[in-house]
Design goal:
Shape: extended
Largest sheet: none
Number of strands: 0
Helix content: over 70%
Distance between the termini: 18 Å
Order of helices and strands: HHHHHH
Strand content: under 5%
Radius of gyration: 18 Å
Amino acid sequence: MFNRVRKKIGKYALISGVGLLLYQGFLFWRMGEWVPFPLAIVVERTVTFWGGVLAQVPMASPEGVETFENFRIGDLPPFLARFFRFTPISGVLIVVGSFLLRWKEYLGEK
């Protein structure tokens, strides 16, 4: 079961990464300007989403909910914020997808 789920997630991540990279190439071809999609977009949206979910929990502290809802990538330490701002989503998806598909090769099994 784990192998099947791992391969499916890997396949979808690889397809998504390549698709996003092709879309970026298409935008570059049309506009003549490279439009980056940094990982910071995903991190900010995920944290603010969980802030909305926490707002629905009855015993969640208002300060914690507010911290999550008002999160910006600049709130992180500078080296981590820089990493998320300059790491492209497509690259992460391609690397994760190929790693999940070739899991056994990395473990030394065939």
